[in-house]
Structure formats: structure tokens, C-alpha cells
Write a structure and sequence with these properties.
By secondary structure, the chain is mostly beta strands. It is built from 5 helices and 22 strands. The relative contact order is 0.16.
Length: 362
């Protein structure tokens, strides 16, 4: 996700203002910088290729925007065509968020994580220097069962110290992962072992809590899924998808990728699809699904006393929302952040955009 807009001081001020509105005044510095760095300079940047630099490490704003209707339409179509091609064969390298293999030590489920710097391709040709768990962004998904002992062995290969916080878990204080508050930070070359009993169940996260504004923004984040000990505690579903938002590394991303490199979500007609929305960024993102309905049943992992229906879920930093979508309307449906400066420019769609594909039976 490399994104940008029109040059000129007036436009820069407008983008900064949009960033402030989206992220809140207290997040002005981080959000403003992200908004300025995240707008595609041209169609090459939007669908693949490296942005020209202004010498500061940020992409240089273009002198001209498309003014001819045919030129603009072609740019928009190129992005869609690239996304559709990505559905058949990845147009970037690297895939994050996949379930991590584990082993059992008695009744304890054991995971291993390594923190390191890697090159991460966000959109075709856009390579960012990321901090990653096990070499991918988001980090691998950890899955456990409510009430099950968990052990996570963390090795730090970064050039700086780090920790891991288990966001949403009720862990012993000394396992909470906040540097110099609950533990000494994990220094470069060292390892640390976290142990806790998984719970509560639901959609949770793990991420750095040491120099977190940089480390999490650059990729030290992942999903921690705790299955309920009683499966009847959650709605039945046929598919289970992550939708992890971030707004720093490479701009606006879903599961570590920017449109057109974002993965499509697919389902067969009539299936019940579970989405786990998680915001690991610094800005609020209202996620909108065209043509279908969210049945929202949990917030921050906790079942809602009264589920509700909507078509737009506003996910604030640190929040998790769970929703079921009944795939009852066939077609290719846009699925994107509805802060439009996070999703579409004069050059076409970019950033926080995906598609939900409902396939009719053949």
C-alpha cells in the first residue's frame, strides 16, 4: 500500500486534516505523517512499482493528476485488473497471518516466535523494511483453546529490545509483556518464555509493547485466537477470516498488503462466513461491505448481550469485532475502509480495499 495525492501546499494541508480527523488530535503526528506518506503518486505506485522519492524517504507528490476521462478510467481499471490477477496468482511475495504450527508438552501448547527485520512487499515493487514475527506481516496466527496452558518461546533477533503483549488475555501480571513494568525487555540475541492459561475466548491479538509506536507499526503484530471450550458459545460458521488493519508500514493495509495485492475473501452461496476485524494501527477505520450484511456478535472477544446488524463496522485502534456474513447475494462485492482517502484516489483504488466473492454453485 503505497499511496499519495496531488501536490501543492493546499492539498497537503487537506490530507493532514483528513488524517487528524481519522486518527484524533492526540495521534496527530503519527497520523499526519502516515496520511502524507500513503497516497499513490501515480498509477504505477497504485498497481505496482516504486514511488519516486523527494529525498526524505517519503514518496514525492506528483505534479499532475489525470485530467482526461479515458486516462483516469484506464488507471482505475488497471488496479481492478491487477487485483483480479492476484486472485489467481499472487502479485507480491510473502503471506502473513497463517496458523502457526505448535507442539504439546504435556497439556501445554507450545509456540515459537522469532523477531527479526525483513524486507516485506506490500504492493508490487513496494518493499518496506519490516519488523516481523517469523518473517511475515502480520505474524503467524496463534490458536489455543480456552483454559489450555500456553507457552510462547520468543527469540529476539532485532537490533533493539522488544517484548510481547497478549492483547485481550487475562494473564498473570508478570506475563503481560510491558517492558520494565512487568518484565525486563528482551534484549537483542536473548530469548524469553511466556506462560499463561488461554482465556477469555474470542478474537485477540499479540504485539510488541516496547517502542511499540515503531515496532507494531512496522509489523510486530499478529492474531491470537482462543477457541471456546464449549463451541456452542459462538455462532456456527463455515469459514473463518482475519481482517487486520494497519496504517503505517507501506501505508494503509489489510493483513499486511495494500490493494491490489490484498487477498480476496471467498465463499459459496449460502455459507456463513466469520470475519475477525482487528485494528493494529493508529487510526480509526470504518469497514464497509457492499451488498451484504454484518451480523455483529462480539466485541473485543466478548459476546454481545444483543447482536446487531449493520453494513459498516467502525474499528478503533486496539479493538476487535466479530461478525457473521451470510453469503446470500452472489457477485464480487467491494469491502473497504470508508474513509475514502484510505481506499481510493484519482488513480484508482489503493490501500484498505478488498473484495468479498460470493460464488454461485456450478
Amino acid at each position: 500500500m503505497t499511496e499519495r495525492a496531488q501536490g501543492g501546499q493546499g492539498t497537503v494541508d487537506r490530507r493532514l486534516f483528513m488524517g487528524l480527523v481519522a486518527g484524533g488530535i492526540t495521534g496527530a503526528t503519527v497520523v499526519g505523517t502516515t496520511a502524507l506518506a500513503a497516497w499513490p503518486t501515480d498509477v504505477q505506485a497504485a498497481v505496482g512499482g516504486t514511488n519516486p522519492s523527494d529525498g526524505t524517504g517519503h514518496s514525492a507528490a506528483p505534479a499532475d493528476l489525470p485530467v482526461d476521462v479515458d486516462e483516469m478510467d484506464a488507471m482505475h481499471k488497471d488496479g481492478i485488473d491487477a487485483f483480479l490477477a492476484n486472485m489467481n496468482e499472487p502479485i507480491t511475495t510473502g503471506l502473513g497471518g497463517q496458523d502457526l504450527e505448535w507442539e504439546m508438552d504435556g497439556d501445554t501448547r507450545v509456540f515459537r516466535l522469532t523477531c527479526s527485520e525483513v524486507d516485506w512487499e506490500v504492493t508490487p515493487g513496494t518493499i518496506e523494511r519490516a519488523m516481523a514475527y517469523n518473517g511475515v506481516v502480520p505474524g503467524p496466527t496463534l490458536r489455543a483453546v480456552e483454559g489450555q496452558p500456553v507457552r510462547v518461546e520468543v527469540t529476539n533477533e532485532l537490533a533493539e529490545s522488544t517484548t510481547v503483549h497478549w492483547h485481550g488475555q487475562r494473564v498473570p501480571n508478570d506475563q503481560d509483556g510491558v517492558g520494565f513494568l512487568t518484565q525486563d525487555a528482551i534484549r537483542p540475541g536473548d530469548s524469553y518464555t511466556y506462560e499463561f492459561v488461554a482465556g477469555p475466548f474470542g478474537s485477540h491479538m499479540y504485539h510488541s509493547h516496547h517502542n511499540a509506536a515503531e515496532q507494531v507499526s512496522r509489523g510486530l503484530l499478529g492474531a491470537l485466537i482462543v477457541e471456546p471450550s464449549d463451541p456452542a458459545s459462538e455462532p456456527d460458521h463455515d469459514r473463518d477470516y482475519l481482517y487486520i488493519l494497519n496504517d503505517a508500514l507501506g501505508g494503509f493495509t489489510i493483513n499486511g498488503k495494500g490493494f491490489p495485492a490484498t487477498a480476496a475473501y471467498t465463499a459459496k452461496l449460502g455459507e456463513r462466513v466469520r470475519f475477525r476485524f482487528m485494528n493494529e494501527g493508529n487510526m480509526v477505520h470504518p469497514v464497509h461491505l457492499h451488498g451484504l450484511t454484518f451480523e455483529v456478535f462480539a466485541r473485543d472477544g466478548y459476546p454481545l448481550p444483543q447482536p446487531f446488524r449493520c453494513d459498516t463496522i467502525t474499528v478503533a485502534p486496539g479493538e476487535r469485532w466479530d461478525a457473521i456474513v451470510v453469503a446470500d447475494n452472489p457477485g464480487l462485492w467491494a469491502f473497504h475502509c470508508h474513509i475514502l482517502t484510505h481506499a481510493e484516489s484519482p488513480h484508482g483504488m489503493f490501500g484498505m480495499v478488498s473484495v468479498f466473492v460470493v460464488e454461485e454453485d456450478q
